[in-house]
Design brief:
Elements (H helix, E strand, L loop, with lengths): L1 E6 L9 E6 L5 E7 L4 E6 L9 E8 L2 E8 L14 E6 L3 E7 L11 E5 L5 E19 L5 E16 L6 E15 L10 E7 L6 H9 L4
Length: 219
């Protein structure tokens, strides 16, 4: 058994500590981390789809998250949903998700989970095109150091979101980007590279700055 202390990624190294318990084969047995999270309590069991016959206890409460696995040899059938039976709930600002068994994905079978929206969920109202599409250069450096360059057709959009019970509004700008060639880490593989990207712009950001920020993220 091995215990490691680390953050979830490099950007979070100073603010999101994480403790992981691994088996001698480096399989994750448990973890505890500190981060802003939802309220959730779940108990799940494996199906024949899973590689390891183990159940999982998951608990999250605002800033603490805990997960523990346990051996479980009674496997549920696989219905091509990737999950076995699951029991519990998950509550966020926008959704309440309730689980009470295993979904099969078949419309004739009763549902074993349900998702409700909370009053805090933003509702989409309208989407407006801003200007005409423009052509911009785009440069991406892969994790292996390969430099990829192309032109991209970029369209800016504005969207408005509201809460039905409030006068509050949320205005967002986002970009639709069409690359003129495949880009990203998967270029040349069976999966293929990325030809389109859609992402939100930061406040005060122009198109060039948004594309430069996108180029720093792996895809």
């Amino acid at each position: 058994m091995r215990i490691s202390f680390k953050a979830r990624n490099k950007q979070e190294a100073t603010v999101l500590p994480m403790v992981r318990v691994l088996s001698n084969e480096y399989e994750e047995l448990a973890y505890f981390r500190v981060e802003l999270t939802n309220v959730s309590a779940q108990l799940s069991f494996p199906s024949t789809w899973h590689e390891r016959a183990q159940g999982r206890i998951y608990f999250a409460f605002f800033v603490f998250t805990f997960m523990l696995t346990f051996p479980w040899k009674w496997l549920a059938p696989d219905y091509h949903q990737c999950d076995g039976p699951r029991f519990g709930f998950s509550l966020s600002r926008e959704y309440f998700h309730f689980f009470w068994g295993q979904d099969t994905g078949r419309s004739a079978d009763p549902r074993k989970s349900y998702l409700w929206e909370t009053p805090y969920r933003w509702k989409f109202k309208e989407k407006v095109q801003i200007g005409e599409p423009i052509q911009c250069p785009f440069r991406y450096v892969t994790q292996s150091g390969e430099v990829q360059e192309t032109m991209a057709t970029v369209q800016v959009w504005h969207s408005l979101w509201i809460r039905f019970w409030s006068l509050a509004k949320m205005n967002m700008r986002h970009l639709d980007v069409d690359f003129h060639r495949e880009m990203g880490e998967k270029v040349g593989t069976w999966k293929g590279g990325v030809l389109q990207s859609h992402f939100q712009m930061e406040p005060g950001e122009n198109v060039e700055q948004a594309l430069a920020r996108r180029a720093t993220k792996s895809f």
